[in-house]
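queue> pop job 88
queue> type: inverse folding (structure -> sequence)
queue> payload:
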């Protein structure tokens, strides 16, 4: 992530219901950046509010709109080469368990994992 955005990300999307992911988002977002939680949590989570002292904006949302998809497609098209660098691992279906463990381990370099059926 540091090679992609050395000062942190302007916007971090949280799409996985895990306290670890929330804390990771707080470490990845730059000062004054925004974290948008799009995951649907079924249980309450607690995190270190002191991490918000970096003037981070925390937003929640439930649904994507057509406009959201259009904007995402434009960003993907514009930054395709840069975003490709974030795809750090590829696994087949038998490797899914290992990939999830890797993503949950803060000591691995996994950012995004593609699963091939």
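queue> result:
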């Amino acid at each position: 992530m540091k090679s992609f955005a050395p000062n942190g990300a302007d916007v971090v999307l949280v799409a996985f219901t895990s306290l670890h992911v929330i804390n990771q988002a707080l470490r990845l977002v730059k000062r004054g950046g925004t974290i948008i939680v799009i995951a649907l949590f079924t249980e309450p989570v607690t995190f270190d509010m002191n991490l918000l002292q970096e003037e981070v904006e925390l937003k929640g949302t439930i649904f994507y709109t057509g406009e959201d998809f259009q904007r995402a497609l434009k960003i993907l098209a514009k930054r395709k080469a840069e975003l490709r660098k974030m795809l750090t691992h590829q696994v087949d279906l038998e490797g899914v368990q290992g990939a999830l463990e890797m993503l949950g381990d803060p000591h691995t370099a996994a950012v995004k994992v593609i699963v091939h059926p």
